[in-house]
Amino acid sequence: AKNRSGVTACFYRKEMDEAARERKSIRADLQYAIARGELKLHYQVQTSALTDEVTGYEALLRWTHRTRGLIPPDIFIPIAEESGAIVEIGDWVLRTACKTAVQWGRDKIAVNVSGVQIARADFAESVHSILYETGLPPNRLELEITETALIADKVRALHTIRQIHALGVSIAIDDFGTGYSSMQTLRTFPFSKIKLDRSFTHGLDREPAAKAILHAVLALGKSLGITVLAEGVETLAQLDILRHEGCDEVQGYLLGRPEPRESALAANISVAQL
Ligand code: C2E
Ligand code: CA
Ligand code: CA
Ligand code: CA
């Protein structure tokens, strides 16, 4: 038995070494991802729950590594945050998304922002200069921020968010309901949109609790004057419930997957022609 557990321990250790090596190599390659042209944005449509009208698009980052292939953002974003590469990548994302929105000439563009970016003293300034440089009207930009990204240094985050809000850019709270003091965050920051986390959407046709929470969040949104968008809508049954309950906006595979700029634009045009 002793021998066996020794083998197991050795096996785990090897796995851990392997994982650490992989992280390290991803971390090293991330610094060149922009220069090598390996980063790309996909765009996922957001629509009005009732009318299907397009309200905006969320930009989602894709990294095609030259040997590893597609690496999901859930894997490389945390590594980029740790190494600081997220600052340059985040600027690239913002600039690229704003340029695309200018070319489209309409609809809002929603961009995910990391806590590491918000913690920087010059973040509001870089948002301002990217808007200026690309010519995107500030009211067509929305920044999506998770609660976790705001609470590390709340005082500074609040200062930065207020500056950005004053530019005319709107702010959405992302993954709503998964943080640990969502009500406090909602009370403090000038959000114009709540993005209800997809775990609630997925529970809608099965769990009474998920529906009750949706109901409460919609009431909250209404009385605070904040738009509520349900994330991760995959089935018609979910969409029916969301419509019936009076949810404002929806996003998810049912309405459209994240797509490259060209096909997202084509979808945009065909929706407009309906
Ligand atoms: P998120 O901001 O919550 O983005 C929504 C994620 O859900 C996306 O995954 C999207 O592809 C996926 N999704 C959309 N509709 C559905 C659906 O109906 N069902 C399911 N199961 N999933 C759906 P993705 O693109 O892999 O991104 C994962 C996370 O990576 C994002 O979560 C966001 O936190 C982060 N991320 C992506 N792009 C960026 C970026 O440019 N900057 C930063 N800081 N983070 C990013
Ligand atoms: Ca998001
Ligand atoms: Ca989300
Ligand atoms: Ca998320």
TrEMBL record:
Residues 23-272 form the EAL domain. It comes from the Bacteria. This is Cyclic di-GMP phosphodiesterase Gmr. It comes from Variibacter gotjawalensis.
